[in-house]
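Batch manifest, entry 17 of 40.
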Amino acid sequence: MEPSLVKSLAVPWLVLLSCLGGCDSGAVQIDSSNIDGILENNEFVFINFYADWCRFSNMLAPIWDEGADKIAAEMAGKKVVMGKVDCDKESSLGSRFHITKYPTIKFVQNGVLAKKEYRGQRSADSFLEFVKEHVKDAVAEFTDLSQLKTLDQNKRHLIGYFSSPDGQDYQNFNKVSLTLKEDCLFHAGFGSAFDNMRPPGQNVIAFRPSKARESDSDQTFTGSLADLEQLGAWAAEKCSPLVREITFENAEELTEEGLPFLILFHGPDDTQSIREYNDLVARELLSEKSSMNFLTADGVKFAHPLHHLGKSKDDLPLIAIDSFRHMYLFPKFEDIKIQGKVKTFLQDLYSGKLHREFHYGADPEEEKKAIEDKSEDNNKEEKKDDTTEESKDDAKHIPRTDDEQPEEASKKPVKSTDPPESQFVHLGPSKNRYTILRDEF
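Output type: structure tokens
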């Protein structure tokens, strides 16, 4: 055999043998036997949940491995892992992490699963930048109390007063900041300049709510700062609001939660209606949080849903339900001050009453009351001749007058249209980027 031929055949074999001994490129394969150790021993774990039969998973696979190599090279020495889970082989992990589409990218930081999935660009550079952003220090240091007077009033804040950045108390505060940095802004002051803000020999952490959106006062953590789990649970409760703002950036993940939306549409500079809505939810609707997502939306940015309700920016503020099938308008924003009015509106959605009344009209007793209310609004002047014209507005029910009562309920006239169709359902996960499991089976 020619020496040159022997040499050309030997090189690939040497490469193969060296890889068998020590090559470690691409993402780490995660399974039931190693996942707990990986999550426990690393600060940031980035995981791609995939299925081999899914074409979108196959498109992502080489890019994900490239990203893993980039991260390993540029973040050497950091406790960061980029892993992947074959959900066909590891169905228990798919269930554990609530995987409903392929591929799904999630991350765990300091042992805490992030509420949000990764939805950024699918490129190696984007993966690297995302990891860098999430592992960098999230705590801003302040040196004077006057700096706290200029905090963004549209954000929630956790403020720590520490004797020094050394010790378990601050380490736990810093760990919590990394997991909640998208929900709260974190600030810390060190040394004797803040002795008047904390008892002798103790460190203090306080929560400051969004002053522009909420009426709550500052609250101090009363547990042990050395207990990371206790501190993390308290901080998560404070930083995760009952009422969230929906934007075009987070609409997909909010839609994917699967709960209907109760949305306050408000003007860009209107903070008063937001505070009133937050107070309403905290006062009357806590029992509904497992059945409904409470959201606020800029009515100018989300003008399209308003248009389908027959409304515009001139009608703000207003409240509506989006059930992912239809949208229903709450009659008057001012009525949120009437005890139980909004809760009844939600219960009417659950029971199907909102949809039924859109087609068949209100129940006789409620209809009678509606007529009386309308009479008061019109200074007791009946305007029966307007019925034909007003009935063109599909977003609002027009009560029947007494002489229009049908002989039998089964003979009630049926509207020719449904309530306005859901607009937010169109902001859900894209079928051009994921294999949606509920559509596969």
